[in-house]
Amino acid sequence: MTQLTSTESYIPTRWLTALKLLWFACAIVLFAGYFAGLGPRFDELTTLCRSDECASLTLAPEELSIIQGYGMGITTYAWTHISLEGYLVLIFSALAGLIFWRRSDTWAGYVLSLTFLFLALPFFAEELRSLARVYPAFHSFNDTLTSLSVMLVLLLFFIFPDGRIVPGWVRPVVAVLVAGLILEPILNQGGVRASSSSLLVILLLVIAMPIGLFSQIYRYRRVATPIQRQQTKWVLMGFLCMFVGMMAWAIFAEIAPLPPGPSRLLFYASLVPQYFLISIFPAAITVSIMRYRLWDIDLVIRRTLQYALLTGLLALTYFGSIVLLQAIFGTLTGAQSPVVIVLSTLLIAALFTSLRRRVQKVIDRRFFRQKYDAQQVLAAFAVTARDETDLDELMWELQRVVEGTMQPEGVGVWLKKP
What we know:
Layout: H1 13-45, H2 61-69, H3 74-103, H4 107-124, H5 127-134, H6 139-159, H7 171-187, H8 193-223, H9 226-255, H10 262-269, H11 271-290, H12 297-333, H13 339-367, H14 369-387, H15 391-406
Helix pairs in contact: 1-3, 1-4, 1-5, 3-4, 3-11, 4-6, 5-6, 6-7, 6-8, 7-8, 9-11, 12-13, 13-14, 14-15
């Protein structure tokens, strides 16, 4: 494979075959566990939860009555969530295969493809945990797979995007992390799980994560090329999307679990956008590692900021106008009026275009100043070129525009003799 940059770290040829065989072995084991867990997972989702100790997403009797009122049976509910979990498995594993196929000869590509496999199956998919609940002997092995997925993610902090480890003093941390990947299955045998193994994972998280974040910041500011900085932007965008999706689950399912009822069912329905946000993470990293249209990330960030802020302002205006107008109508007539909703909708329609332009101008000035200035300079030059008749003045203006927008080391203008 042709090397894309001189800094890319490639796997030595003598190790490549063994590492590829290890990748295939991991894929076979993980998918075998996933398919074996589909049956137990379906049984869990079709069994009503009547206690505090139940598998995730199982329904209480009162929740089943609510969904039956909307025409959905418990079997349909079970297949819906199995399909959603399968969506994440499909996205992560398919992109893992693509990266392995195209970039498995680089350290960054190999570790990333292996990380996607472990995130797809033991981390996000519930099927392996369902299998462990049915067969307790599998529980220890499943915990090992989950720990390995966490440590692989930590390893990415140190080697992405080119496989090199910078700065040099963090290499002992990476060595400890790799040793943990090797020792975790060993420590997990013979009842060591509760002490040495879990302590190892916690220590790696506490120590390696902040150092890994520092490594990425150092790499971005001191070492990265312009292309690598674009790669980092893609990854950061995808990670933030996944973080938002995971935080929603962590808050309402782990930290402050919702009680059985309509609110928890609504949270279960919100898993659709949550899973979509999570799936942006592997897609963004795949774009980054494959280096496909890297420079589009600036447009993506720009549009995301614009429409996120615009949506928030419009929603605030819409609901605020409804509350205010309903209060006015209630004071004058003593009753609620549907006219308020119509007036609020018309107000939003009237505000949309002008508000979007103002938001775009503010964001361009604050976060994309150089691009914004270039656009303004080019627009001003178009007006000058249309009205200017002095050739020397026009050439001077052209040089000024080129220097202001492209910032070259030198500018020259050659005119063809008539």
